[in-house]
Design goal:
Blueprint lengths: L10 E4 L11 E6 L5 E3 L5 E4 L9 E6 L3 E5 L5 E7 L2 E4 L1 H4 L2 E8 L4 E5 L11 E9 L4 E8 L1
Antiparallel strand pairs: 1-4, 2-3, 2-5, 6-7, 7-8, 9-10, 9-11, 11-12
């Protein structure tokens, strides 16, 4: 999503119409300049213009359920989802995994494991899952748990 404004420090707010009934679960807005991620279904996002920010400053993320899919450099897809509070992963990807770390949106480590069976997340929110593979490849997936 593009945004450009010449003046610095002018305040803008991005929000959804509270009367709208979205067919998707959450609509997340990621500010690529500040790194902030906000659920627009729950909150408006206010930011200040900055001429140093990229024109393609924002990214919209839609979730209908709690599934994250990312392509690893090997060409394989990693499919992550929550079954209740337990993090699940596509069986093909499990063969090459050495370590998994899960961070909340504030960057705090909330879980880590060498085998996927031990990863339980009791809270809802946006998580960054860092997957370390045996080939010294590291991969991250953004995952929303509702």
């Amino acid at each position: 999503m593009s945004f450009y404004h010449q003046a610095n420090n002018k305040a803008f707010t991005i929000s959804l119409d509270p009367a709208s009934n979205s067919p998707v679960g959450d609509i997340m807005l990621e500010d690529l300049y500040t790194g902030a991620i906000v659920n627009l279904m729950a909150n408006a996002y206010t930011f200040s213009s900055n001429s140093a920010a990229p024109v393609q400053r924002f990214k919209l993320l839609f979730s209908q359920n709690s599934v994250g899919i990312q392509e690893i450099e090997t060409g394989l897809y990693t499919k992550l989802w929550f079954n209740e509070d337990v993090l699940q992963m596509d069986e093909k990807a499990l063969e090459n995994i050495e370590h998994i770390s899960v961070f909340n949106i504030s960057g705090q480590l909330v879980a880590e494991s060498s085998d996927l069976e031990n990863i339980v997340i009791n809270e809802t929110g946006v998580f960054i899952v860092k997957i370390s593979l045996k080939e010294n490849i590291s991969h991250t997936v953004k995952l929303v748990k509702m």
